[in-house]
Amino acid sequence: MQGHNLQDINELIDKTNRLKCSLEPLILELDPDIPDPIHNLILVGKIINDKPLNKAGVKNTVLKAWNPSSGLKISEIEDRLLFTFKTSQDVQHVLDRRPWSIMGAHLALQPWPPDKTIHEVSLQYSPFWVRIYGLPPNKMTKKNAKIIGSRIENLLEIEEDSQGRIGGRGFMRLKVDVNIESNFPKGLILKREGDTESWV
């Protein structure tokens, strides 16, 4: 019995040794009939949620929310979604209005670079609008908004009113790239005159 098992093991090892990948790197040519700009019309997305969502519901919600002018094709590759547009204006419209909530779940979206595979597109960061409360009026400046934005994540945009003022509603509003795979900071300690501190 032991000899029979040993023979089986040796056969398994032999078969495994024959399953070798070629050490010669694969070199492929670019398709001259597919221009790089076509990749500018494709967004890669992933729904961040504990439970899977109804696929038909997701598609209907996306089409209604985005309302693309020239149509939209939605396909799925494993855990990722591909959104193929027909115009760059529709793509920019969707990107500029991030973040998107689909049926109560967050939809992370990024453009698909022409030199990356679909799973190499990083969906770790997603833009969010963040409100900054607890600042006195003399601290609500563009320079301070940049300092706070850099402490949260990568600052993308600072909300200003029609007169170019910041914080006119009693808080500052910043658009930042947030690492959705890590804990988001609840606030920051503000050092003030007289060695007092306050919570922002």
UniProtKB/TrEMBL annotation:
Boundaries of each DUF4283 domain copy?
Answer: 40-117
Q: Name one Pfam family in it.
A: DUF4283
The name this protein carries in UniProt is: DUF4283 domain-containing protein
User: Per its UniProt entry, which superkingdom is the organism in?
Assistant: Eukaryota
Question: What is the protein's species of origin?
Answer: Escallonia herrerae
Name the lineage: Eukaryota, Viridiplantae, Streptophyta, Embryophyta, Tracheophyta
